[in-house]
Amino acid sequence: MSRCSFFILNAARLYVKTKMSSRKLGKFLAYVLGRRPDEFGLALDREGFAPVKEVLKAVHEREGWRFVRASHINELLMAPGKAPIETRDGLIRASDRSGAPVHRPAENLPKLLRICVRRKGYAAARENGVRAGGGRPLVLSSDTGMAERIGKRRDASPVLLSAHVEKALEAGVVFTQAGENLFLCRFLPASCLDGPSLAKHLKRLGPPSQKQAAEEPTKKQEPKRPGSFFPDLSSPKARGRKTKPRKSKDVAWKKGIRKIRRKKNDFDI
Prior knowledge:
Shape: elongated
Order of helices and strands: HEHHEEEEHEEHEHEEEEHHH
CATH architecture of the largest domain: Alpha-Beta Barrel
Number of strands: 12
Number of domains: 2
CATH class of the largest domain: Alpha Beta
């Protein structure tokens, strides 16, 4: 087999393998977004969209799909025929959403729901509660493992909180069910949250790292204005040049000329 034929054969094999991988990925994303988003801890909006970044993090949790990147999604969209997914402004949804779970008012709620928060935000959560942000709802789960999976997408070691449903309902919280084990809301008051001791958490969090301490400014400096120059008076150069002692005006050759002139004047007299 010639070298040219060898390269052509390898290119053909790679093309077939890539095409099969794209089809497999398309079917997988259609299942994730169009059938069981709750199985992956994803809460879709009213139009069936979810942020691409969140979907990729959820997909990477499944063994064998950690290679998927945004470029693979773009390849699916550019492939001939109808794509199994649609994207818009950083969001993604399945083209066929007929089998997706419908969001409905939650009924027969469990006594406790789980949610994770970032370590740095735990103290604020215990004091002020947890509020949804960025146009996305809070996602809680009746399954502790699922709540931890969702939390680890934002923090490597999140803090697990328990939300007492009865107290939350008394405070006016409205829960929406988004699948088998997922529940959504906009706000959780601090009175319904339970978690590890705050003192133990701060001890576990520990003091700021050396890098963070180095980044903290030790002295407040006045911001420099554009085009301005502030000399450092502590440096020898900024103190100005040293004044040299002036030389005497009576230079030697000038003295000689004056002496000759005096002698001439004396002769004329």
